[in-house]
Write a structure and sequence with these properties.
alpha/beta, 7 helices, seven-stranded mixed β-sheet, single chain, Metallo-beta-lactamase, Chain A
């Protein structure tokens, strides 16, 4: 498997950046994980709309779905200009209902529902979903192919299913939306320190931090995590990672 980072900002895009989006390649098939602001522009550096096989949306916050309406335009207009593009399979949570309804594409997208511990064959890989701890229905993804495991936390705070998701993963991309100095009574994202601690506990082989709020210096995120796990890395926009 190969993963390309199309967007790694949290909340809103950093200058020249994009919010959540990752292009996963499995044996020549392409799956887009999340479709945030600016993601499609970066995706088209690598593939055209006809090459995209499926989309998985981890949850329906705007920084993970804001390019979905633009994706519909891409499918529709490509057809009108002669490209043979079948309706695009999209898998997403069923709630919040208003946001879920907005995904419907009138023949442009075919929307299926993600559910907890849903298992799916994904072009030869095995996908399982894990319910994360976030204000809305959110799923982390664990994808295994030929003995290698990629784990994506989406947005979460510490929870029991997080450990199950990450256990012995070869590559884990984790939500590092906060620093410990920003801790509040109610948190919506993991801190960089929590990412490192959890990765160590779960035996993660390679940890990458993502969902970086542009208001926080990435160097601070890396320093906080590296104090616990020195080999921690930040995701890099447009970088490719082999699993």
């Amino acid at each position: 498997m190969k993963l390309t980072v199309l967007g790694n900002s949290g909340g809103f895009p950093a200058a020249g950046g994009a919010t959540s989006g990752y292009l996963l390649e499995i044996e020549g098939h392409y799956i887009l994980i999340d479709c945030g602001s600016g993601v499609l522009s970066n995706m088209f550096r690598y593939i055209n709309i006809a090459q995209l096989d499926a989309v998985i949306i981890t949850h329906l916050h705007s920084d993970h779905i804001s390019d979905v309406d633009v994706l519909k335009y891409a499918v529709d207009l490509s057809r009108k200009y002669g490209l043979d593009r079948e309706p695009l399979p999209v898998f997403a949570p069923a709630t919040p209902e208003m946001a879920a309804d907005s995904l419907q594409g009138e023949g442009l997208l075919i929307v299926g529902q993600l559910k907890e511990h849903m298992k799916m064959n994904l072009y030869g890989a095995n996908l399982e979903t894990y319910r994360m701890n976030h204000p809305i229905e959110t799923y982390g993804l664990r994808i295994e192919h030929e003995g290698r495991v990629f784990a994506f936390t989406a947005d979460s705070t510490p929870c029991e299913s997080l450990d199950d998701l990450l256990q012995d993963a070869d590559l884990a991309i984790m939500d590092a939306g906060m620093l410990e100095k920003h801790r509040k009574p109610v948190m919506m994202h993991l801190t960089a320190a929590e990412c490192a601690e959890t990765a160590n506990r779960c035996g993660v082989k390679r940890l990458l931090l993502t969902h970086m709020l542009p208001l926080i210096d990435p160097a601070e995120l890396l320093a906080e995590a590296s104090a616990i796990r020195p080999e921690t890395e930040l995701t890099e926009l447009l970088a490719e990672y082999k699993v």
